[in-house]
Amino acid sequence: MSRSHTVTAARTTSTRSALLPLCFAIMASHAYVPNENPFASSQDLTFDEHEGNPFEDPPKHPAFDQATADRAVELERREAQLRVQEDNLRREQEQVANIRRNGRNNWPPFYPLIFHSIKDEIPMDSQLLIDRLYKLWLILLVTLIVNMVACIFILISGSSNGGRDLGSSIGYIPVIGILSFLLWYRPIYNGYMKVGIFLDVAMCHTHHILHPKKEQALYYYFYFFFGGWHLVFSIYMIIGIPGTGSAGFIQMIQSYTGSHIAAGILGTVATVGWIIQGFGNAFYYHQIWKHHNAQGHTINGAKTEFATHWAKRSITGRKATGVAAARA
Does residue 174 surpass a pLDDT of 80? Predict the structure, then answer.
């Protein structure tokens, strides 16, 4: 038993003696180098400029950058347009308000009583409508004058009703001319106005309302009522019944049949004038009626606006009276 242990120990000693030279050789090939990182990788970690840095964000696509830039430019352009529109609207409102405050009346031109400017006071999309109505009113005025001249020639021609025709035709010029402007043209002008005001028909003054951007139903009902009566009057004048102050169709025919050519020609011009302004006003009456229904105006709303206006006017009048009394 002791002999086997002795043999094993001898073999172990001989094996260790054989391995020692091998270990010294390996240690010599891996000699220690100062300041060397033993954990460093043997691979080169420098970045190739062609391959790029793997830790950087991937480059953006050129098309994506261009689309983003285009959207930004478009947004800036729209913002600039909105700013310009806001500035123009504010300037227009200030201009109209300043005109109203300072009383820059310009109509009628020979004796200015009120301010009238379709370009300055009416929104762009409604200017054509109001401009046509104003021209129809001017045609009415010219027709009234021609009608009066025709009645003079009818009187000269020996008509038994010539005196009444002439007297009535003279009275139509101031009465119909002024009332048509105040009772149907001016209300619808104010109805489409940028800055809401109320027309004092008796004094032809204007007053600011509480909500300037909201259409007022009261203006439309003024227009529909008096504009409707004007259409009836136009039909009446087109017919031309003798003794009514109209040189319309019947009077025109009688003048031609009686060989009174001058009276007949003037009667023809007057009849054409009544037809043009009558049918023109009927057409735009229908257009305004459709707009009125689309806006949802009601008679109750008009009554409320009327009551509010007169209440505000009475309060303003009492304040003005009190201030005047205090100054006295």
Answer: yes
Terminal CA-to-CA distance of the chain, rounded, Å? 150
> Mind listing the pLDDT tens digit for each residue in 119-156?
988 999 999 999 999 999 999 999 999 999 999 999 99
Condensed to tens digits (0 to 9), the pLDDT of residues 252-285 reads: 999 999 999 999 999 999 999 999 999 999 999 9
Tokens of 122: 């009416």
Q: What is the pLDDT of residue 88?
A: 81
Neighbours of 115 (CB within 10 A): 18
Q: Is the pLDDT of residue 166 over 50?
A: yes
Q: Quick check: 204 and 292 in contact, CB under 8 A?
A: no
Q: Which of 119, 116, 140, 181 is nearest to 280 (CA)?
A: 140
Q: Which of 12-21, 33-42, 116-125 has the lowest mean pLDDT?
A: 33-42
- 78 contact partners, CB below 8 Å, separation of at least 6: none
Amino acid, res. 177: G
Residue 107 DSSP class: B
Q: What percent of the chain has pLDDT over 90?
A: 45
CA–CA distance, 214 with 194 (Å, rounded to integer): 9
Distances (CA, A) of 118 to 106, 129, 192, 281: 12, 10, 10, 18
Q: Please name every residue paired with 208 in a beta bridge, in sequence order, or none if there are none.
A: 197
Tokens representing residue 261 in the block: 């050519």
Report the Cα 19 to chain-centroid distance in Å: 104
Whose tokens are 């949802």? That residue is 296
- Average pLDDT across the chain, whole number: 79
3-state secondary structure of 298: coil
DSSP three-state, residue 167: helix
CA atoms within 13 A of residue 228's CA, in its CB half-sphere? 6
The C-alpha torsion from 136 through 142 and 145 to 149, rounded to 10°, is -120
- Number of residues in the chain: 328
Closest alpha carbon to 142 in 154, 150, 130? 150
